[in-house]
Design a protein that fits this description.
single chain; 173 residues; mainly alpha; 83% helix
Length: 173
């Protein structure tokens, strides 16, 4: 082989090589875009199915927070005796039952939202326990009175959690 044949072969090979490289990158990008498009469509379909379930979870947790608000809880749960200890236990039991009923909703909520809801529940229970420990609280009716007075002076712990839920739902859209 002489130099002219090698040069001729080289001149034929270079355009074929350039065309091959361009085709490779084109198909690589095309495949990448198609894969991204398929993932997007799959995610979109999953969101269409999951969005109503997530919204229902937020609704149920908002209802839970409304139900454990002390002023509403006291109206719904009446004392069975005049004992403040039994009424305190009844209120806390009611909160815990509501919470356990909605426990599965945590898989549809963000971790931060769930932690805020748990903190609101615990703060409400703590509020009831502190009111029960006061010396002026000597009966179930007095416990109700002290709790209602406390709610007039400050916001319920569930109010902050409810505001957070509303903000998180607003960010979904």
């Amino acid at each position: 082989m002489d130099v002219e044949q090698i040069l001729g072969l080289f001149l034929y090979a270079v355009p074929a090589l350039i065309t091959g490289i361009i085709a490779y990158y084109f198909f690589k990008e095309h495949t990448k875009n198609e894969d991204g498009r398929r993932r997007f469509l799959l995610k979109k379909d999953l969101q269409v199915d999951a969005l109503p379930i997530r919204l229902q979870a937020y609704e149920r947790m908002a209802l839970f927070l409304e139900r454990i608000t002390p002023s509403k809880l006291l109206i719904r749960v009446n004392p069975t005796s005049s004992s403040k200890e039994s009424y305190e236990a009844l209120l806390i039991q009611s909160i815990e039952q509501e919470f356990e009923h909605n426990l599965s909703q945590q898989i549809y909520l963000s971790d931060k939202c769930w932690n805020i809801i748990v903190a609101a529940k615990n703060a409400t229970i703590q509020l009831i326990r502190k009111a029960s420990l006061l010396e002026k609280t000597n009966s179930a009716n007095k416990l109700r009175e002290v709790l209602l007075t406390e709610m007039m002076e400050r916001r319920a712990p569930s109010d902050a959690a409810l505001a957070f839920i509303k903000e998180e739902v607003k960010n979904i859209w």
